């Protein structure tokens, strides 16, 4: 099931973030040093500006969020959640799944539960 979810996420990212997937180098595992978006990359791909604040990088062909949690005592998947677009049917289905699974609690709870694995662009308004 996790392999199927990962394959779907890769397809969504390929559709939503093609420039980022083309520009960013792929890291094999979480232990490799992270190469972030440079300013010269942003000149050639202006659509990447919205991603710059998230410090995205690729790990095993999956676009993940970088950030200050690098040294936190958490699992790597929680420190660097998978990046998802705000307006996509798969994102909507994942939100619905978390909402239903967690007992139909409010949007802030759903967003917090999802942030363990996924980071949704404009997450609060999307949820």
Characteristic terms for this protein:
8 helices, 3-stranded mixed sheet, globular, two-stranded parallel ribbon, single chain, 127 residues, mainly alpha
Largest sheet: 3 strands, mixed
Structural class: mainly alpha
What letter string, H or E per element, gives the SSE order?
A: HHEHHEEHEHHEH
Averaged pLDDT: 80
Radius of gyration: 15 Å
Task: Give the percentage of residues in beta strands.
Answer: 5-15%
Helix content: 40-55%
Point out poorly predicted stretches.
none
Number of helical elements: 8
Secondary structure: number of strands: 5
Q: Give the N-terminus to C-terminus distance in angstroms.
A: 24 Å
Give the strand order, joined by hyphens, for the main sheet: 1-2-3
- Any idea how many domains? 1
Globular, elongated, flat, extended or rod-shaped: what is the shape? globular
Structure commentary:
With about 130 residues, the protein is mainly α. The chain has one domain (about 1-125). Helix content is about 45%, strand content about 10%. The chain contains 8 helices and 5 strands. It has helices at about 1-15, 20-25, 40-45, 50, 75-80, 90-100, 105-115, 125; strands spanning about 25, 55-60, 60-65, 80-85, 120. The strands form 2 sheets. The protein has a 3-stranded mixed sheet. A two-stranded parallel ribbon has the order 4-5. The two termini are about 25 Å apart.
